[in-house]
Design goal:
alpha+beta, globular, 9 strands, 24% helix, 2 helices
């Protein structure tokens, strides 16, 4: 009987340790991303084609995205092309190097299709690295 209780205690201790470890790792979601990802969609959810849906201000009908220091909107990275799938992905370390260690990024979307706007108060960071921006009819 003593052997059974000892074995049961060991199994129970291992199970509790595993459960605590699993819950602790699930609750400790402090991972940080290495890239920022922005997706731009129309009000109906269809992806904006960054290569041809623009208003003509940039290289034909291209749409440009620019990441900036969220605390100083004049400190910005180069203009980047929004993809045909409505997405752009940019290395955080490359942005931080160019913008002198900035942690929080705002963004500008230039050359949007005529009659559309977006929420310009979006802030991205390594902890909040992905956003889908739904355009609104202006």
């Amino acid at each position: 009987m003593k052997k059974i209780l000892t074995s049961l205690a060991i199994v129970l201790a291992v199970a509790i340790t595993l459960c605590v470890g699993v819950f602790a790792s699930a609750c400790n979601n402090s991972s940080t991303a290495t890239e920022l990802t922005v997706t731009v969609v129309y009000p109906d959810g269809k992806a904006v084609d960054g290569t041809k849906d623009g208003n003509g201000d940039y290289n034909g009908n291209a749409i440009k995205v620019q990441f900036c220091d969220a605390d100083n909107g004049e400190n910005c990275y180069q203009l980047l092309n929004l993809g045909a799938d409505g997405k752009i992905t940019q290395s955080i370390s490359q942005l931080q190097e160019a913008l002198e260690g900035v942690e929080n990024f705002s963004l500008h979307i230039l050359g949007l299709p005529d009659g559309y706007s977006y929420d310009e108060n979006i802030v991205l960071s390594a902890k909040n690295a992905s956003v889908t921006i739904q355009l609104v009819k202006a």
